[in-house]
Amino acid sequence: MTSIVSHARGTGPAAVTPHTLATRAAIDIMAAGGNAVDGAIAANAVLGVVLPTTCGIGGDLFSMVHTPGAVAPAALNASGRGGSGLDADAMAAAGLTAVPLYGPEAVTVPGCVDGWEALAERFGTRPLAELLEPAIRLARDGFAVSVELAAALGRLEQRISDQPSAAPLYPDGMPPAAGTTIFRPLLAATLESIALHGRSAFYEGRVAEAIEQSTGGIVTGADLAANRPDWVEPIGIDVFGTRAWTVPPNSQGYLTLAAAWLFEQLGVGTDPDDPAFHHAVVECYRAVAWERDDLVADPRFAPLPPDLLLDPNRLGGRLDRLRTGRAQLWPAPAPARGGTAYFCTADAAGMGVSMIQSNFHGIGTGISAGGTGVWLHNRGAGFTLTAGHPNRAAAGKRPLHTLSPTLWSDSGRLRLLLGTRGGHQQPQYLLQVAALLFHAGLDPADAQAMPRWEMEHAEAGVSSLIRFEARVSDAIVSGLEQRGHTVERHPDYPPGWGPVSIIASGAGGLTAAADPRVTTATAEVS
After folding, report:
1. Are 50 and 191 in a shared domain?
2. Cα radius of gyration rounded to whole Å, the chain
């Protein structure tokens, strides 16, 4: 029996994605004999069609793949690099202090399609054309606009409606209402070409020419043709009786794992209604988040080797300050809303995929690659213009990435697939959920439903400002305030605070849970 609900249990296959249509595509592919990688690629392609304000083939991709018995997952970095025309000196000379968020300077080579091909070649069992067919069909035949997409397109209208690929998103020249059927024939044609010809259909020819023209030569056809993803060594740490894994920099994923290790060392109680529990989670995140912008960069330029980021000897020096029971004056990272889709799949044979794919800020730069239906991301905004900084913008260089997928295993057995969208806030959400699952012992559905917090930017030396969902108890709020935090209440289930996707593997099979904060997010297990 198959379930499509906020949470489900079974022996597999299983999928959790931000949209019902993507979850269904993954399950259908796996039920027809495909594996978890096949299902993840199919889901990703559908998400790019029905949620263009979160992800698409104009963006980047990171993935981890667990195969039964493997001690460590295979990790793929399919993030793109700065184009040949990217010039930090010229931007600084023009008086800019940062890479323009919505300008062509923020476009780096999109890595998604190369990521699909790399995953399919190494692990897939089905032709790419078969995996893209559900997305092509939806783009060609139409799909109903979700509440979230309708709201996003309304917000974006003034910025993107004059782009060559915008007309299908604005039928009759107006933002579509929720429930309206829209069609994306331009994207359908591009996907059909990729299905027939693979990466060359994107990185060469018509699409490549459109990207070069749309970016004013900042990203050239030669940059696109030369792009390749990298299989990299994942980084991991022992925590909560598992080995927790993530992709190394240029991803910020290590923050989740480092904070989880600090949290476990504190030995706080397991009651999630105790303010001390939440104080520890908040402070353990803050104890590592302040350093991110100095350490996360293209690995060729990063100041520390990836394994050292999770070295207990490096992290352990922060424990004395954490044990004071008071909010510390940790510096804090700057905020950014992310346009991202995290999704996970697992098959009945034990393979699991943790995958994240993104445009960054909603629909990215808001620049389309001509009339191809492709919207270009703005991951180059993750660069800095500071001279001498390891993350300074440069051609051929990967920027700091907020994408933070995680995978948790134990002696070659998959335990958990966990990830989220949320820009800089991703490690915050993942740490909260991991602590609730592993330390407090909640099941995935209950962990998803717990009141969630996030924090925005705070200047160096200023105590934390925590924004909690309104249903958090008065006791937790007052307990945090007594420990030196400032707490604000915000509406319950805000869509931007997720969606977190979870697939847990245990003796009873697979348990999948979608996030109630996004109406289209679904979990399905057969």
Report:
1. yes
2. 21
Task: Confirm if 230 and 76 have CB atoms less than 8 A apart.
Answer: yes
* Residues 347, 30 contacting (CB under 8 angstroms): yes
Determine the pLDDT at residue 6.
72
CB 244 within 8 A of CB 408: yes
Q: How far is CA 228 from CA 33, 80, 231, 357, 387, in A?
A: 29, 8, 10, 16, 27
Q: Tell me, what DSSP letter sits at residue 42?
A: H
Beta-bridge partners for 358: 60, 340
Q: How far is C-alpha 361 from the chain's CA centre?
A: 12
| Region 336-345 average pLDDT | 78
pTM higher than 0.90, yes or no? yes
User: How long, in residues, is the chain?
Assistant: 526
How many Å apart are CA 176 and CA 170, to the nearest integer? 6
Assess if residue 212 is contained within a domain.
yes
Q: Does any domain span residue 197?
A: yes
Q: Which residue has the tokens 């906020």?
A: 6
CB 349 within 8 A of CB 35: yes
Rounded alpha-carbon distances, angstroms, from residue 366 to 59, 163, 398: 12, 8, 21
User: By residue range, what is the domain housing residue 441?
Assistant: 232-337+403-525
Mean pLDDT score, 99-119 = 97
